[in-house]
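Box 3.1 A note on notation
Throughout this textbook, protein chains are presented in two layers. The first layer is the amino acid sequence; the second is a token string describing backbone geometry. Keep the layers aligned when reading.
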Amino acid sequence: MKLFYSASSPFVRKVVLVLHETGQVEDVELLHVSTSVTGPDAALAASNPLAKIPALTRDGGPTLYDSRVICEFLDDRAGGALYRGGWDMKVLEATADGIMDAGVSMAYEKRLRPADKQWDAWLEGQRKKIIGACAAVEARWMPSLNGPVNIGQLAMAAALAYVDFRHPDAGWRDGHPQLADWLMKFESRPSMKATRPDTA
């Protein structure tokens, strides 16, 4: 199998964290691509009509895309332990993916749009999505972030670490001490160290 890959993408990092945690790293070749909305990679676009990463090519089947689809496929391939929490676990993953969406949207606004055309109110709206999601996790989902590793933990770690990487002044830790403490501890996992954007 081959994974279209960029080390800085939180969605890709979530997939690679799953590979590490399920012992499948050696089963997948990472294909580094540089792609964006304004400059899609041709090989990626040929495999995924949306020209987005991650995308996983496999023998005997169509390319899988969307990180949730790929993660669930890889979890099933490894014996199916990461989604043991059922629908609650999928909602937690979706919440983390929402943080990723907001963070990536902010990064595109800051890095691709000319400075004189950037919309501050829109950036603040995306930041508020991140803060709102963190508040919901702090109030409702902390028990799911403890115990044996699960998809919610991997997704949330990838999401929050991305916010720290691209938007260190977002302020998501303010008022969310349990979540901040959880991430600090979770980042000591070997899989997190191996997939850091500045070292991967």
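The longest strand covers residues 61-65. The mean pLDDT is 92.
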